[in-house]
Every structure is written in structure tokens, then in C-alpha cells.
């Protein structure tokens, strides 16, 4: 299993903020989502990982010094899945 970005959205970076912009109607209607660097990195690169575990390990190592913990990561991914911004695929 791995995560992919929902293709109903495009990710844009403005200064230090990442914005996920829907370009078609979704369950979230046309709501915009704002993310910091870590969130933007996860969404921008999730399609490049071979597995959920690989992505988690890589992201946690990369942002360990920024205070990212297992719990924060897991809660963030859970929210992305609930809003269907990330999708879980085989």
C-alpha cells in the first residue's frame, strides 16, 4: 500500500505556504487547504514513495529536527485521508 495525491487538486507554493487548490468539485466542495513546508513536502512527493512505511520513515528522518513526531505525522496523514486529499492505493 502507498499514498497518492488526489488528482482533483493541484499544489501551489506561495512564499513559504503551500496551497492545495481543487480544480473540480470534490467532497470538500471548492475548499482550499493551506500547509507548511512539511505538509507541502508530504503532498508534493507522496506519489514518489513505494510504500506507506517508506514515506513515513523518510519524512520523519527529514523533519526530525523540526519537531515532527510519529504522533503528529500519523494525525496529519489521518486528516489528509479523511478529507480525501491523499488516497490509499495498492
Secondary structure topology:
Elements: E1 2-5, E2 9-14, E3 17-22, E4 33-35, H1 37-45, H2 52-62, H3 70-82, E5 86-89
Antiparallel strand pairs: 1-5, 2-3, 3-4
Q: What are the defining features of this structure?
A:
37% helix; two-stranded antiparallel ribbon; 90 residues; alpha+beta; three-stranded antiparallel sheet
Describe this structure in words.
With 90 residues, the protein is α+β, with helices and mostly antiparallel strands. It has one domain. The protein is 37% helix and 26% strand. It contains three helices and five strands. It has helices spanning 37-45, 52-62, 70-82, and strands spanning 2-5, 9-14, 17-22, 33-35, 86-89. Strands 2-3-4 form a three-stranded antiparallel beta sheet. A two-stranded antiparallel sheet has the order 1-5. β2 and β3 (17-22) form a beta hairpin. The longest helix has 13 residues, at 70-82. It is globular and about 35 Å long. The relative contact order is 0.24.
Amino acid at each position: 500500500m502507498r499514498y497518492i495525491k488526489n488528482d482533483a487538486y493541484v499544489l501551489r507554493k506561495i512564499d513559504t505556504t503551500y496551497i492545495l487548490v481543487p480544480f473540480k468539485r470534490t467532497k470538500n466542495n471548492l475548499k482550499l487547504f493551506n500547509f507548511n513546508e512539511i505538509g507541502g513536502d508530504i503532498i508534493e512527493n507522496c506519489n514518489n514513495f513505494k510504500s506507506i512505511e517508506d514515506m513515513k520513515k523518510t519524512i520523519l528522518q527529514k523533519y526530525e529536527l523540526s519537531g515532527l513526531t510519529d504522533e503528529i505525522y500519523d494525525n496529519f496523514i489521518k486528516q489528509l485521508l479523511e478529507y480525501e486529499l491523499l488516497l490509499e492505493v495498492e
